[in-house]
């Protein structure tokens, strides 16, 4: 079987690396394509054998995003037609479902945030959907997912955290091997994301608060290389360090005493690894995060008083957590079941 994996954002590289390894280990062939966006290509080149970098990141305007999508689909078509996959799989990629639909390839889409303006397009374009249990059945059905949706139990981040083990070498690489005081990691808002258009007024308030905590070392991890100058301009205190290169995200989360993020992936990594975590996401809260908040595993910052009340201390690290959900196995089974859809009908690229 031939499997096409498409990566359109940095977290997808970590997520799909163990999936691609498992597929290759059973003798199947994997093609990985990566979009030039944030650190996606850089991470793909570290984690996969011979990934193909195709297409550039979208501009912030809606027209720019649509134009970039169309251009990338045109670049993907001849490459994917030649590879002739039996199945395609991606997490939140718009480019892959369109390309797969044009070529008659069965396609599996995963998403873990349901309020992106284009979610209904993803759901309608996909052959099959693999979604978190927390997603509302009514929302899935109204967005075009009726009759083609499977659910998975657990967090998608468990796919790659199952194989992660922290080491003192990673701690040394971060320069905190001998540190006695607390370490906090910040992940800024997703500037330019369609689901996070609001300016986040808590961001500068939080930076100011942490700069005043002189016993706290703060790492700030920008989402995109182009954001580094803007973030550095805001973070002037010597106890706040802006990371200008890719780092091992799970290791950074594990060795931090707290994480505060305006996004989702690192928050869920922290939840899975047992690191205290606060969300400062100012968009509409997704069902996965709502469930984690209800369970007390994720906290939310919504006001300046929330920020001013933050006090950080060194945490005791428990034994490394076990992940009994086998999310990797759930994903692999969904890929195989989606491939069977194509075998009953059109064989993309002709029979081999």
Q: What labels describe this entry?
A:
disordered C terminus; 13 strands; Rossmann fold; seven-stranded parallel β-sheet; alpha/beta; 352 residues; 16% strand; 15 helices; six-stranded parallel β-sheet
Textual characterization of the structure:
- With 352 residues, this protein is an alpha/beta fold.
- The protein folds into two domains: 2-161 and 325-343, 3-Layer(aba) Sandwich (Rossmann fold), CATH 3.40.50.2000; 168-308, Glycogen Phosphorylase B (Rossmann fold).
- The chain is built from 15 helices and 13 strands.
- The strands form two sheets. The protein has a seven-stranded parallel β-sheet, sandwiched between helices. Strands 10-9-8-11-12-13 form a six-stranded parallel β-sheet, sandwiched between helices.
- The chain starts with a strand and ends in a 9-residue tail after the last helix.
- Residues 192-198 and 344-352 have low confidence and may be disordered.
Per-chain topology:
Layout: E1 2-7, H1 10-25, E2 29-36, H2 40-47, E3 52-56, H3 62-83, E4 87-91, H4 95-103, E5 107-110, H5 119-125, E6 128-132, H6 137-145, E7 149-152, H7 158-161, H8 168-173, E8 183-187, H9 202-212, E9 217-220, H10 228-234, E10 240-242, H11 249-255, E11 258-261, H12 265-273, E12 277-279, H13 287-294, E13 299-300, H14 304-308, H15 327-343
Parallel strand pairs: 1-2, 1-4, 2-3, 4-5, 5-6, 6-7, 8-9, 8-11, 9-10, 11-12, 12-13
């Amino acid at each position: 079987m031939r499997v096409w994996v498409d990566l359109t954002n940095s977290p997808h590289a970590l997520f799909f690396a163990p999936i691609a390894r498992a597929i290759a280990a059973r003798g199947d062939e994997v093609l990985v394509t990566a979009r030039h966006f944030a650190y996606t290509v850089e991470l793909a080149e570290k984690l996969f054998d011979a990934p193909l970098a195709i297409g550039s990141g979208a501009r912030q305007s809606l027209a720019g995003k649509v134009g970039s999508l169309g251009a990338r689909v045109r670049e993907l078509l001849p490459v994917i037609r030649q590879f002739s996959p039996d199945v395609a799989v991606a997490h939140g990629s718009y480019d892959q479902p369109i390309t797969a639909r044009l070529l008659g390839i069965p396609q599996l889409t995963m998403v873990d945030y349901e309020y992106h303006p284009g979610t209904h397009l993803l759901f309608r374009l996909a052959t099959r959907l693999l979604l978190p249990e927390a997603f509302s059945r009514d929302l899935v059905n109204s967005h075009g997912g009726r009759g083609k949706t499977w659910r998975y139990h657990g967090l998608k981040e468990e796919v790659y955290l199952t194989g992660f083990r922290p080491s003192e070498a990673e701690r040394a690489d971060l320069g905190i091997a001998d540190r006695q005081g607390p370490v906090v990691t910040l992940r800024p808002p997703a500037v330019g994301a369609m689901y996070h258009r609001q300016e986040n007024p808590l961001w500068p308030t939080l930076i100011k608060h942490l700069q005043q905590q002189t016993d706290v070392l703060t790492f700030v991890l920008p989402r995109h290389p182009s954001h580094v100058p803007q973030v550095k301009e805001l973070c002037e205190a010597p106890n706040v360090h802006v990371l200008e290169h890719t780092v091992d995200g799970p290791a950074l989360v594990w060795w931090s005493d707290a994480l505060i993020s305006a996004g989702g992936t690192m928050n869920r990594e922290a939840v899975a690894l047992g690191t205290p975590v606060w969300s400062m996401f100012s968009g509409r809260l997704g069902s996965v995060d709502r469930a984690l908040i209800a369970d007390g595993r994720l906290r939310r910052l919504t006001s300046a008083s929330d920020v001013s009340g933050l006090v950080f201390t060194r945490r005791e690290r428990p034994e490394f957590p076990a992940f009994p959900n086998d999310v990797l196995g759930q994903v692999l089974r969904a890929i195989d079941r989606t491939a069977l859809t194509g075998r009953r009908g059109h064989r993309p690229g002709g029979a081999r």
